[in-house]
């Protein structure tokens, strides 16, 4: 496994635990289809939350949220539709969130932006 994959998995593990600690139930993780991947799908207060997790080791490449482009948002919306179809969820309340995990100087910061897309 490449270094960036290890860092990415670590960030997703932290994001999952962060959500669980706040009462979210994890429904799916790393769901894939031909169009791409959804990092985390959670349920919270009757709503499905689709989460893009961005992890950075150091700030040399900018803040993790800077990697979420308009193109990525459009793909995420398509993926949410495909996930709902594949899981027979219609007419459900959904929200798209982003979680940034920044590892710097031996410290880890987790930031959660709700309804970012």
From TrEMBL:
<dbReference type="Pfam" id="PF02021">
    <property type="entry name" value="UPF0102"/>
</dbReference>
<keyword id="KW-0378">Hydrolase</keyword>
<keyword id="KW-0255">Endonuclease</keyword>
<dbReference type="InterPro" id="IPR003509">
    <property type="entry name" value="UPF0102_YraN-like"/>
</dbReference>
<keyword id="KW-0540">Nuclease</keyword>
<protein>
    <recommendedName>
        <fullName>UPF0102 protein Rhola_00005160</fullName>
    </recommendedName>
</protein>
<dbReference type="InterPro" id="IPR011335">
    <property type="entry name" value="Restrct_endonuc-II-like"/>
</dbReference>
<dbReference type="GO" id="GO:0003676">
    <property type="term" value="F:nucleic acid binding"/>
</dbReference>
<dbReference type="InterPro" id="IPR011856">
    <property type="entry name" value="tRNA_endonuc-like_dom_sf"/>
</dbReference>
<comment type="similarity">
    <text>Belongs to the UPF0102 family.</text>
</comment>
<dbReference type="GO" id="GO:0004519">
    <property type="term" value="F:endonuclease activity"/>
</dbReference>
């Amino acid at each position: 496994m490449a270094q960036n994959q290890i860092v990415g998995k670590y960030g997703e593990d932290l994001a999952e635990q962060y959500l669980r600690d706040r009462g979210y139930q994890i429904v799916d993780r790393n769901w894939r289809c031909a169009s791409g991947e959804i990092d985390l799908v959670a349920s919270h207060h009757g709503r499905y939350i689709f989460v893009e997790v961005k992890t950075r080791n150091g700030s040399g490449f900018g803040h993790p949220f800077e990697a979420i482009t308009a193109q990525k948002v459009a793909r995420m919306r398509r993926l949410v539709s495909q996930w709902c179809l594949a899981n027979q969820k219609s007419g459900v309340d959904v929200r798209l969130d982003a979680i940034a995990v920044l590892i710097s100087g031996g410290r880890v910061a987790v930031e959660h932006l709700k309804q970012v897309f």
